[in-house]
Amino acid sequence: MTKEELQKALQEVEEQRNQLKEELNKLEGTDETAGDGVVTMATVAKKALHDAVASGNLKNILDKVSSSIDFAKTAVTSFSQIVEKAQAKMDGKIEEITIQGGMTVMSNMWMPMVLGLIQTQEFQHIMANMLVKIIKDA
């Protein structure tokens, strides 16, 4: 083969290579860059996942989600119990709860109860911790 024939054959191979690359890119996703340094969306996603796992960020995010789900479950369960008690009271099934000193809890006692809760050391520490967390995250 002559030099010209080899160059022509090489050019045809290059054209086929480029066509195959384009077809492959279509199958893998959209290109972020063109040319020989083709980066697909799948490649970007894999790198981002690798970085998130390696740095521990993914674990931290999943821990926060898990914690939030636990809090949400507790809140939903509590609201469900409140609704159940309200339904029982509407049906005339009144359950009386007594507090220290044997007094029955009345519907007009919610404010003194909340004020009593706010005055406890435990509640104040919890609220202080929440406030610090909110300020730090901001």
From TrEMBL:
UniProt keyword terms in alphabetical order:
Coiled coil
* Coiled-coil ranges per UniProt: 3-33
Give the protein name, as stated in the record: Uncharacterized protein
**Biological source species:** Biomaibacter acetigenes
